[in-house]
Amino acid sequence: MKVAFEYADVNGVAGRFNNERKSAGKDWLKLFCKRYNLPVRNPEQYSVARAMGSNEVQVTRFYNNLKSCCLEKKFPAHRKFNMEETIISTVHRRL
């Protein structure tokens, strides 16, 4: 909601935003998600192993590997995909 406010503010888009909190309201978010058929989900817990692997060194290593792989294999743009993680669970639950 804060990003929506900032975008509207920078681009001069008129809207019914809360100028004190510098945020769009919950009603705006609900209508936006409905308009673009976007589900609103609660975030899952962040596993300790994933948190430890999300440091600057590991992230830099990942992107360097990605870059070298793309350059070596010469993947065209239409063969690159952004996989979202909403279906993949990173939290181990006991049954």
Descriptors for this entry?
mainly alpha; 95 residues; 0% strand; 4 helices; 46% helix
Tell me what you see in this structure:
The chain is mainly α and 95 residues long. It has one domain (1-86). The protein is built from four helices and no strands. The protein has helices at 2-11, 26-35, 48-53, 56-73. This is HTH CENPB-type domain-containing protein.
Q: Largest sheet, if any?
A: none
Estimate nothing, just give the exact number of structural domains.
Answer: 1
Detail the poorly predicted runs: none
- How many helices? 4
Q: Which strand-content bin applies to the residues?
A: under 5%
Query: H/E element string?
Result: HHHH
Helix content: 40-55%
- Shape by Cα distribution: extended
Distance between the termini: 36 Å
Query: What's the pLDDT, averaged over the residues?
Result: 81
Q: Give me the Rg, rounded.
A: 19 Å
How many strand units? 0
- State the assembly state of the protein chains: single chain
Q: Find the structural class using helix and strand composition.
A: mainly alpha
Protein name: HTH CENPB-type domain-containing protein
